[in-house]
Amino acid sequence: MDTKALHYAAQLIAQADALIVAAGAGMSVDSGLPDFRGSRGLWTTLLPEGMHERDLHAWTQGRCFEADPTEAWRFYSEALRVCESTEPHAGHAMLLDWASRKPHGAFVYTSNVDGHFEDAGFAPGRIVECHGSIRHFQCARPCSPDIWPAAPAGAQSKKAQTLPRCRRCGALARPNFLLFSDPAWVVARTNAQRLRMETWRAGPRNPVVIEVGAGLALPGVRMFAQSLRLPLVRINTDPAELFGTATVALQGKALDVLQDIDTELAERYTR
Ligand SMILES: [Zn+2]
Questions:
Q1: What's the gap in Å between 85 CA and the centre of ligand 1?
Q2: 146 C-alpha vs ligand 1 centroid, how far in Å?
């Protein structure tokens, strides 16, 4: 770890009046979860029995619910079960702790669909899920912008014959997160979250952006973080992905680097 960079990151965080956490797949990887639109290799951990890695392409396309609803739901029930059975890691709690010491708290912008920031205690009204959420459903057609909380994965597997249905029109329901080539994704919930963030952003005078595990392959979170033109702490495992317009860049796994910053904050700053 570059200690000078670590000191600088801790200083930026200590001096800020608010945190903007921009989190990509690398944040959830430390909880044992894949990025649902990212690395195919990681998706294999979600494959239900009898499904193969070569099938993955089909289940990441928006049309999969139309093409084969039963198999698509077999895959996504398993994905939902995995999300429900894994927990946020200590890095989420550290970010929440730092945020609790700021006059304006924190806002999270994440491509992760697992709901772990909310599980970790971040207020639902302070999170933007830019790719949606696997823990919410929408109509697969869709008949309306309606989005509702997912039934627990266990409840679905018990009634394998009855696939989740739209609560408005009775057509097939699907998870409300963005797949590839996915014009049917309902963006209403994410748009409302973005609007709340814009309103919140009028408050802080000196926020710092902490970008964690946001890769270049699907650069939405990075682009968001950079577009704010604020002091930016970038954390990434891949040295090739550290470059860009970050104020300070730290190489390492999300949890490890957050732990190092936390130690640094405790030692050097009265919190
Ligand atoms: Zn419907």
A1: 28
A2: 8
pLDDT average, residue stretch 39-56 = 70
| pLDDT band per the 50, 70, 90 thresholds, residue 43 | low
Superfamily for the 3-268 domain: TPP-binding domain (3.40.50.1220)
Residue 87 confidence (pLDDT): 92
Asked if omega into 103 is within 30° of 0 (cis), the reply is no
Between 132 and 162, the higher pLDDT residue: 132
Give the Å distance between the CA of 77 and the centre of ligand 1: 19
DSSP letters of 42-85? HHGGGPPTT--GGGHHHHTBTTHHHH-HHHHHHHHHHHHHHHHH
How far apart are the CA of 74 and the centre of ligand 1, in A?
20
Instruction: Say yes or no to pLDDT of 212 above 90.
Output: yes
Q: Give mean pLDDT, residues 109-134.
A: 96
For residue 112, the CA-to-ligand 1 centroid distance in Å is: 25
Task: Measure 31 CA to ligand 1 centroid, in angstroms.
Answer: 33
Residue 187 alpha carbon to ligand 1 centre in Å: 15
| pLDDT of amino acid 85 | 86
The pLDDT assigned to 42 comes to 54
Taking the CA atoms of residue 257, residue 258, residue 259 and residue 263 in that order, the dihedral angle to the nearest 10 degrees is 100
Q: How far is the CA of 129 from the centre of ligand 1 (A)?
A: 22
24: helix, strand or coil? coil
